[in-house]
Amino acid sequence: xxxxxxxxxxxxxxxxxxxxxxxxxxxxxxxxxxxxxxxxxxxxxxxxxxxxxxxxxxxxxxxxxxxxxxxxxxxxxxxxxxxxxxxxxxxxxxxxxxxxxxxxxxxxxxxxxxxxxxxxxxxxxxxxxxxxxxxxxxxxxxxxxxxxxxxxxxxxxxxxxxxxxxxxxxxxxxxxxxxxxxxxxxxxxxxxxxxxxxxxxxxxxxxxxxxxxxxxxxxxxxxxxxxxxxxxxxxxxxxxxxxxx
Length: 245
Fold this sequence. Notes:
Elements: H1 2-19, H2 30-46, E1 49-57, E2 61-71, E3 74-84, E4 87-94, E5 97-102, E6 105-110, H3 113-123, H4 125-133, H5 138-142, E7 144-150, E8 153-158, H6 172-188, E9 189-199, E10 202-212, E11 217-224, E12 242-243
Parallel strand pairs: 6-12
Antiparallel strand pairs: 1-2, 1-11, 2-3, 3-4, 4-5, 5-6, 7-8, 8-9, 9-10, 10-11
Helix pairs in contact: 3-4
């Protein structure tokens, strides 16, 4: 009987030791998360297909839906819709025709190589999205602290005392733009919180809150919806667009 009790006590002790074992420590840093974000943006820039949605709130509401399919180096399909306050800018490419809608003025033109160059210059990935992603730069992430990181959702808070311009690897033009961003954030922001959802070294969602010195809160949210070949639903009225003169 004593032997049985002793055996039971040993089993219970073993269970308690194993059961109380601390979970593995997550050593993810803000710079790791910046690396995930950079890798994600690069993946979408280089991918033949992608779907990104951006929503921003401050004085006005701004939304951008950006979906694309390339066939090699040629643009096969595009849906780019930017709405900001009362302004609407949209570009669509389908069946080798380019359609543009600027505040209700709707035109179309065959997608020649020259027209494709114009569309990509005005409505390409870099033109439409670079200003969003460049905000989340090295200087900003070096001033972040991870306040929680559970199940692939990391919350970062900004410490203004750690915010220092880091111009590592920048060209002259990039340095000027980064300096302007840095000065603007330093002078006007009181609090910044960024929540990153990530998996397998890639970011799937950015949710950020920006509180300025007047306690006005703005938000910048981005959803990366995939780089598989996209099924795009185009407006039903494309056939009514006027021929571009």
